[in-house]
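Crash report, auto-generated. Payload:
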Amino acid sequence: MPIEPLSNPDGQLVSAREHCRQTLLRLAQENRDILCLDSDIGGLDSCFGDVLPEQYFDVGIAEANMMSIAAGLAKGGCRPVAHTMAGFASTRACEQVKLDIAYHDLPVVIIGSHGGLSAGHYGMTHFCVEDLAILRSFPNLTVVVPCDAYEAEKALVAATQHDGPIYIRLGRNPTPILHRQPNPFEFGRAQILRDGADITIIGCGPHAIAAALEAAELSLSQASVRVINMHTIKPLDTAAIVAAARETKALITVEEHTIQGGLGGAICEVVAQKQPCPVTCVGVPEHVPSRVGDEKTLLEQCGISAPRLRDAILRHLALPQ
Amino acid sequence: MTIAAVTSRSHEFLAHEAFEIRRLVLEMAHQPHGAHLGGALSAADILSVLYHRILRLNPDNPDCQNRDHFVLSKGHIAAGLYAALMRRGILPEGDHKTYCQNGSYLGGHPSHSLPGVEFTTGSLGHGLSLGIGLALAARKKKRENRTFVLMGDGELQEGSVYEAASAAPRFNLSTLTAIIDRNDLQINGSVEPWLPKGALTERWKSYGWQVFEIDGHDIGTLVSTLSPSPQESGCPRLIIANTTKAKGVAFMENNRKSHSVALSDRLYHRARGQLNATKNNQNPETTDAY
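Recovered output after restart:
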């Protein structure tokens, strides 16, 4: 049954994290092999554990343990969905994800919340701007960054049917629903949100995509901008990248992630080998913010914003900024 | 298809198979790359009892769904595991001559691509959590698989072991048995500074494990301790098997240098001679120079 976009007539913000929990509960009620693994992240016990106790395992504050348990469960024929924050999934439990899940190509879904700078007020320990670079280097692991709750739902549904490991990166905060129409979702198949002939912006995640769409609007009188939602970082939609590199003058990548090795790095690897073209990578600089703040503030400090993307567009077209 | 453990295997047979495992391990260490000898020899009796008496498995179909699971968490003693799999008819004996050679499927740490190997291991501190997952899956699927995990005592310095140790009793995993090959030596010396005598039992009991401490070279004790069915209490079981590093080769026993050794022709023949002497109940020479 096709998934309809969320009914959201008022432009209300929706938390992909919360929406995925409800989605998982529904999926687990339909498929008893789907198990929810919790590492004491709060909320899952009541929204899932109280409803389906036989399919809920709280492993404690022990992310490494959780990843290996998930691998064992998957090896035994179950479909575990492991929950933690993105930073703990990709760095604290890094080796368990790499060896026990990715190398073994086991059908484990890892949901990493609080991705990027979305836990801005928590401080540096809870920022996660390295996960995509780390995890896309692991074999077999599909890496997905949905841009809204609707896409997150589609990604989770597909993930629980996928024959291999998947990492789904979510933020912490409610964000706009960017999808207005039903659209097919397939891992590794990018979505062109807006066509354009001069410049292409390729982004992932809610704030990057929102900024890209806004920058395209801001530049409307001066440039025709294509916007691509690259929701799957691995496997990458190389055809969409090569076409954009061939058909437009330059690529601008944007992500809530370090500019080293994430979506921008992955795209540079493709164009360098298949269709060389100018590329500007917009993301978090090497030195992550040392002061706390809400996500929007931190993103603006890092240059992940529509005005900065517009500057990059005009620079590539040698137009006055 | 129901499969059963081979309960008819005599203690003499199991001791003989432990000897054969040690023999093959020495042969695998007799090449330029060497092998993690000391730990493989200390665990040989445990491996023999597991593979020839305890584990319900089908050598012709090692992946059959109702098999018992064995996870070698101390993956560096791969040579011991390969030897056990060969003696049980799961891997072809003779392939041990390719151990660690270019292109061999028998690497210094075991790969899950091999028949009879559940997980690729070698990075310490993963096995017990993997075992919890396997045991939970069996329960979820209403299968009767039991799960055995073999760890080293040095491995217990990895913090992730205690993440697993504290989690397993919460899930009432009576089908899970963890075994510690306690040979008290790691590369740099004694394990005891990190693991004081007495602390181990109390620590795991306090987590909710049912703990047994036994002689890890006594075949009869190994059989009787590993045999019981899952406990009604719901507790996972921890078996502390006190062993001797490099057991069976007197000149290497209790010597930390035995941890990883490439045996020269001279040392190999000397080691074989001492191993043969143990089988014949002879007193082997015990000089410590090698």
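Post-recovery validation: The mean pLDDT of chain A is 95.
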